[in-house]
Amino acid sequence: MTQSSSPQGCDILLSGTGYFTEIMLADIAAAARTPLRIVVGGRNVERLKWLVDACRSRAAIYGTQVSFDHVELDSRSVETLKAPLQALRPKVVVQSASMQSPWKVDNGASEWSDLVAKAGFGITIAFHALLAFRTATAIKELGLPCHFVNTCYPDGVNQLLTAAGVPLTTGVGNIGIFSAVVGGRLPFAQRKDLRVLGHHRHIVEWRKPGTQREGAPVRAWIGDDEIPNVDDMTRDIQLPYRDLNLISAASSVPVLLALAGEGKRRGHVPGPNGRSGGYPVQVDANGVTLDLPKGMTEAEAILWNKQFEDKDGVSVEGGRIVYSERARKLLQPYGTEIADGFAAADVEAAAERLSALRARLGG
Question: Top-level CATH class of 12-170?
Answer without folding.
Answer: alpha beta
